[in-house]
Structure formats: structure tokens, C-alpha cells
Write a structure and sequence with these properties.
It is a single chain. The chain is of the alpha/beta class and about 375 residues long. The protein has a single domain (about 15-280, about 290-345), classed as Spore Coat Polysaccharide Biosynthesis Protein SpsA, Chain A (Alpha-Beta Complex), CATH 3.90.550. Helices cover about 30% and strands about 15% of the residues. It is built from ten helices and eleven strands. Strands 1, 2, 3, 4, 5, 6, 7, 8 and 9 form a nine-stranded mixed sheet that branches. The longest helix has 24 residues, at about 275-295. The protein is globular, with a radius of gyration of 20 Å. Keywords: Cell wall biogenesis/degradation, Glycoprotein, Golgi apparatus, Isomerase. Its EC number is 5.4.99.30.
Length: about 375
């Protein structure tokens, strides 16, 4: 009809979601994401030299924090935020006031689906988060809430309502998220497989969480999304998202929350240097053989009913059991407590403070 202009649809959860981006460089990559990100609020966490000026394309609504800001806002508790490592992104989770977080790396570009259409990764993450998870019984058609799918014959009706989804873990085309040894033996390997599926990770199953294309419900699981002590001054790097994923999954299993993986895909544009990565990962590759059994056997007491309670309890177990592996884990366990204290200071709730062994774990 003449004279009627086409109105763009309002983005999903426009006022309830922050996009968190860790970076050390100008954010030119945002230009390609403009159609999908422009109406959302961005939280940029600048790593490295705080005197360096990071340029952000015009038209984006954003706040930018560098190391000086982190030190100013958190004071002594800033020690729990990693420096010179993408783990600094979790500061953005802490200062956000929104219900949902989507985090993406600055070398992640818009991918295309098999038909050649640009993938709106953010929209798919939101769909994942707004539909239930089914971790207690596996559905062979994967996500039963997706259009064109349902629960298959033999799926218990008592479990079909599902449980709230806390985390949506997206994947990558082009450069796979490999560790250094795999990068070294497969330097030319590229992921070209677009698997059109989302599935719930079963209860009791751990997975390697990648932080470069990830979304979560901050209100449900935020205090567990701590990316640990990595990078500058630490004996390990590139295990920040792994650590958060293992802690988060144990807590989600305990509290009855779900985790999905699969769609959406992003295009991971560049491989990091495998020799540099090997230096960062070396201890992690060695330690993970003890970390995985630790998390697989970790249990939380019934009276841990909040994420903060659970996380403090997990920190005690880290100190008691992993402290024997290396002194680093004693320091990491203390940082986990500091993280929760800082989270609660910046995110006070109406609940009365709960004190556990002299530590305030919920406010």
C-alpha cells in the first residue's frame, strides 16, 4: 500500500540483554554485526594497556571499562579479575544490570547458513534461553520445543515441561576451537559442517564451554560465570571459559537448571598462534586430567539453594581437593570467594544476607 513505510521489528529482549565484548583493539568488527546489535546495549571490557584508546563505530550504545575502571569500582577485590586474558570479560557480567548476557569475541564474524543467509546469532541464543531444557531424559529429535519437532514416543510425559534454561552455548564455522596440540597437528583444518540442531546437555555430563559465542540468564546463573584467574601473573591461560563451564554445570545440575549447545554458529575468523597457546595451556592440559574427575564427582549439599551458596561451597572443595594438585588452586579458590563478594556488592538483592563460615554469600 502506497505511503506506508516498513517498520523494522523490535529486537527480542532489547531492554533485558547486554552484549559483553572483551577486546584489546578497535571494534571495527561491529560494523558487520550492526543490523543485529545496534539496538542493544554493549559492555566493552578493554584488556591490556588502559591508556590505549579503543575506537567503537558510531551509532552503538555502549559503556567501556578498562583496568583503571575495574580497580576503581572493585578496589582490592579487583584482584579476582584476570589481566591480559579474555577472562576479563566476566567483569562485564558483574556490572551489567540486565537479565540476560550475550558475549562474543572481536574475531567472530557473522556466519551464513547453508542457504547463504546471514545468521542472527543473538536471536537464536534468545530462543534457546526462552525455551526449556530437558537434561533428565534425552530426546532423540534434540530440542523438542523447536518448530517441527516434539517429544518422541517413549518420552515420559512427566518430564515434558522441562526446566529453565540458564546457558546457551553456540558453535563456530571456519576456525574450530581447538587446543594447541590439535592446532599443531591440524593447522589447515576448518569446520565447514553446519549442524542444524540444538540439544540439552544431559544432567551429570560436563562439556568444554567456549566463551566466544555464549549467552546466559544472568539472574539464574550469573554468579557462577566466573572465568577464573588466568593470564598475566598466572601459570595458566585459555582455561577461563572451561573453568566457568565446569563450575556452572555442576551448579546447574544441582539447582535444576538447563544448558543447551548447538545453534547458533558464528564465523571464527582467525586462529591464534598454537605455540603461544601451548605455553598458556600447558599446565591446563596436564591438570585437566585431575580437574575433570573432580568436577564429575563434585556434589553440593541440599542446603545450598542459591548460586552464591553453591559457588562458595565449590570453592571450599577446590581448596581442599585441588589445592593438593598445585598451590594455584588455593589462590583460585580464594578468588572465587572474592568474586562472589564483589558480585553481591554490585548486585544487592532484597534478601537478607546469609553468612556462611564468616563469608557473606548472598544479600
Amino acid at each position: 500500500m502506497a505511503g506506508v513505510s516498513k517498520v523494522a521489528p523490535t529486537p527480542l529482549l532489547k531492554d533485558e540483554l547486554d552484549i559483553v565484548i572483551p577486546t584489546i583493539r578497535n571494534l571495527d568488527f561491529l560494523e558487520m554485526w550492526r543490523p543485529f546489535f545496534e539496538q542493544y546495549h554493549l559492555i566493552i571490557v578493554q584488556d591490556g594497556d588502559p591508556s590505549k584508546v579503543i575506537k567503537v563505530p558510531e551509532g552503538f550504545d555502549y559503556e567501556l571499562y578498562n583496568r583503571n575502571d575495574i580497580n576503581r569500582i572493585l578496589g582490592p577485590k579487583a584482584s579476582c579479575i584476570s589481566f591480559k586474558d579474555s577472562a576479563c570479560r566476566c567483569f562485564g557480567y558483574m556490572v551489567s544490570k540486565k537479565k540476560y548476557i550475550f558475549t562474543i569475541d572481536d574475531d567472530c564474524f557473522v556466519a551464513k547458513d547453508p542457504s547463504g543467509k546471514d545468521i542472527n546469532a543473538l536471536e537464536q541464543h534468545i530462543k534457546n534461553l526462552l525455551t526449556p531444557s530437558t537434561p533428565f531424559f534425552f530426546n532423540t529429535l534434540y530440542d523438542p520445543y523447536r518448530e517441527g519437532a516434539d517429544f518422541v514416543r517413549g518420552y515420559p510425559f512427566s518430564l515434558r515441561e522441562g526446566i529453565p534454561t540458564a546457558v546457551s552455548h553456540g558453535l563456530w564455522l571456519n576456525i574450530p576451537d581447538y587446543d594447541a596440540p590439535t592446532q599443531l597437528v591440524k593447522p589447515l583444518e576448518r569446520n565447514t559442517r553446519f549442524v542444524d540442531a540444538v540439544l540439552t546437555i544431559p544432567k551429570g555430563t560436563l562439556f568444554p564451554m567456549c566463551g566466544m559465542n555464549l549467552a546466559f540468564n544472568r539472574e539464574l546463573i550469573g554468579p557462577a560465570m566466573y572465568f577464573g584467574l588466568m593470564g598475566d601473573g598466572q601459570p595458566i591461560g585459555r582455561y577461563d571459559d572451561m573453568w566457568a563451564g565446569w563450575c556452572m554445570k555442576v551448579i546447574c545440575d544441582h539447582l535444576g537448571l538447563g544448558v543447551k549447545t548447538g545453534l547458533p554458529y558464528i564465523w571464527h575468523s582467525k586462529a591464534s598462534n598454537p605455540f603461544v597457546n601451548l605455553k598458556k595451556e600447558y599446565k591446563g592440559i596436564y591438570w585437566q586430567e585431575e580437574l575433570i574427575p573432580f568436577f564429575q564427582s563434585a556434589t553440593l549439599p541440599k542446603d545450598c539453594t542459591t548460586v552464591q551458596n553453591c559457588y562458595i561451597e565449590l570453592s571450599k572443595q577446590v581448596k581442599a581437593k585441588l589445592g593438593k594438585v598445585d598451590d594455584y588452586f588455593l589462590k583460585l579458590a580464594d578468588a572465587m570467594v572474592t568474586w562472589v563478594e564483589a558480585w553481591d556488592e554490585l548486585n544487592p538483592s532484597g534478601e537478607k544476607a546469609v553468612e556462611q563460615n564468616g563469608v557473606v554469600v548472598a544479600k
